[in-house]
Amino acid sequence: MLLFLSLAFFGTGFLVSYWLWLRPMLRSRPSLARFNAQSDTFWSAVRAKFLFIKTQIAAACLMIGGFLIAIHDFLIPLALNVDWSPVAASVPAWAWPVGLFALGALFAWLRNATVREQSLVTPVQADHQREDN
């Protein structure tokens, strides 16, 4: 655990140092202008690719997390004959996986509702809404 925390600390420190100090210095160099332009277009393309599916990815990750917790809380104790009840007495065993799965399903449902509402707006209505604002 200490190794993981140390790696997380130093990794975060490296990323923050790069982002706040090294990256601006490299971007100011004229000899790296072509590389900076290519990297900017690459990250713009990645952002555009994931623009409409970020919520769906978050929902899928939450549902996978719920599934993994269900395996950890139900199947592994049954297979290994481990008693976790003294540790988790305050929370029902079914609450975490069901809650995470329900939250993921809620994310997916809200995302689908948003997409349906956007598809119902015609371009003419969208132009009128922009003029009103």
Describe the structure.
α3 (54-80) packs antiparallel against α4. The N and C termini lie far apart (53 Å). The chain has 133 residues and is mostly helical. The protein is 80% helix and 0% strand. It has helices spanning 2-27, 33-49, 54-80, 95-120, 123-132. The radius of gyration is 23 Å and the shape is flat. The chain folds into two domains: 1-50, no CATH class; 52-133. The mean pLDDT is 76.
In brief, what are we looking at here?
With 133 residues, this protein is mostly helical. It has helices at 2-27, 33-49, 54-80, 95-120, 123-132.
Strand-helix topology:
Elements: H1 2-27, H2 33-49, H3 54-80, H4 95-120, H5 123-132
What is the total tally of β strands? 0
- Rounded average pLDDT: 76
Based on Cα principal axes, name the global outline.
flat
Name the structural class: mainly alpha
Which series of helices and strands comes N to C? HHHHH
Structure annotation, total helices: 5
Helix content: over 70%
Whole-angstrom Rg: 23 Å
What distance lies between the first and last C-alpha atoms, to the nearest angstrom? Answer: 53 Å
Q: From the structure provided, what is the oligomeric state, counting identical versus distinct chains? A: single chain
Strand-residue proportion: under 5%
Integer count of domains = 2
Low-confidence stretches: none
Main sheet attributes: strand count, strand direction, barrel closure: none
